[in-house]
Design brief:
With 278 residues, the protein is of the alpha+beta class. Strands 8-14-13-12-11-10-9 form a seven-stranded antiparallel beta sheet, covered by helices on one side. A three-stranded antiparallel beta sheet has the order 3-4-5, with no helix packed on it. Helix 3 packs across helix 6 (220-245). The protein has helices at 88-92, 95-98, 121-128, 134-137, 139-144, 220-245, 261-277; strands at 2-3, 9-10, 34-35, 42-43, 49-51, 69-73, 76-80, 108-117, 151-154, 160-164, 175-179, 183-188, 191-199, 205-213. GO terms for molecular function: 2 iron, 2 sulfur cluster binding; iron ion binding; oxidoreductase activity. It holds the Pfam family Ring_hydroxyl_A.
């Protein structure tokens, strides 16, 4: 992904059309052009072939990087690998209205954490989509907020929901949200934590937190520590659940109509998505 001189964004698969070499190894940096790390082919910022180093023959016309959709929305950058997906604003539906009072544009990136969790991404999503576990898994969160009043607000669109939990006093956590399939967030005082779940196979995911804060936000270190504690607790229980799911000792579970209706909606979306591709 690149930011162009006019401020717009471009994004490409990290694949050279010559022989599938990488354009970048890892991380981020600055470069006028994109150069394949394998054989040195160079491409412009818009993905067109600039030069094929010492190729020895004329390169066919039209050689270029494969682009992907990328758009910035309120300071957050979204990339989509499926060219048939509608534009982001259309895809989000009514979700932006839920964040209209959160001043995302005034926040800046502060830090990132990545933790490998030994579970399927759907197991982790199941955990996020209910507050039933909060009193038993998250004791510190339960002290600061009324976990028995945890509510998952599900509208007409099952692809997203907003979670609220009334604070008992000073608390860092009271509003959360999720968007299908692997995007979540926490609204914190003076900031916003973006949470992504990146599958690394059927039994592992990377849980990536990006913390964004306003320049005048206070207690950011304390917020970070509290958030990471909750994330560690979620990772621990999700890994245990995953082991139990495949142990042979578990068959079919039950869903609480009071606490877990969002899971039923999520499971239906998973089944529909699998059926559509099979």
């Amino acid at each position: 992904m690149r930011r162009l001189a006019d401020g717009s964004l471009s994004a490409f698969h990290n694949v050279c059309p010559h022989r599938a070499g990488p354009l970048v190894w890892e991380g981020c940096g600055h470069s006028a052009n994109l150069t394949c790390r394998y054989h040195g082919w160079a491409f412009t910022a818009t993905g067109d072939l600039l030069s094929a180093r010492d190729f020895g023959a004329e390169v066919p016309q039209g050689i270029a990087l494969t682009s992907v959709q990328v758009v910035s929305w309120r300071g957050l950058v979204f990339v989509c690998l499926d060219p048939s997906t509608p534009p982001l604003v259309e895809w989000l539906g009514g979700f932006p209205d839920a964040l209209v009072d959160v001043p995302l544009e005034g926040y800046r990136f502060v830090r990132r954490t990545v933790r490998r969790v030994a579970c399927n991404w759907k197991t982790y999503a199941d955990n996020f989509l209910e507050g039933y576990h909060v009193p038993t898994v998250h004791p510190s969160m339960s002290r600061d907020a009324d976990a028995m009043q945890y509510v998952v607000h599900q509208g007409d669109d099952p692809r997203w929901n907003i979670h609220t939990m009334p604070p008992r006093g000073e608390t860092y956590f009271s509003v959360f949200g999720w968007f299908w399939p692997c995007f979540a967030f926490n609204v914190v005082p003076g900031g916003f934590a973006v949470e992504r779940w990146l599958p690394r196979g059927p039994h592992a995911i990377d849980v990536i937190f990006d913390y964004l804060f306003a320049d005048d936000a206070v207690d950011t270190d304390a917020i970070f520590i509290a958030s990471e504690e909750v994330a560690d607790e979620d990772a621990r229980v999700s890994a245990f659940v995953q082991r139990n799911l495949v142990s042979g000792a578990y068959d079919t579970g039950l869903l609480s109509p009071k606490w877990e209706p969002a899971l039923a909606a999520f499971h239906k979306m998973v089944r529909d998505a699998v059926s559509a591709t099979s």
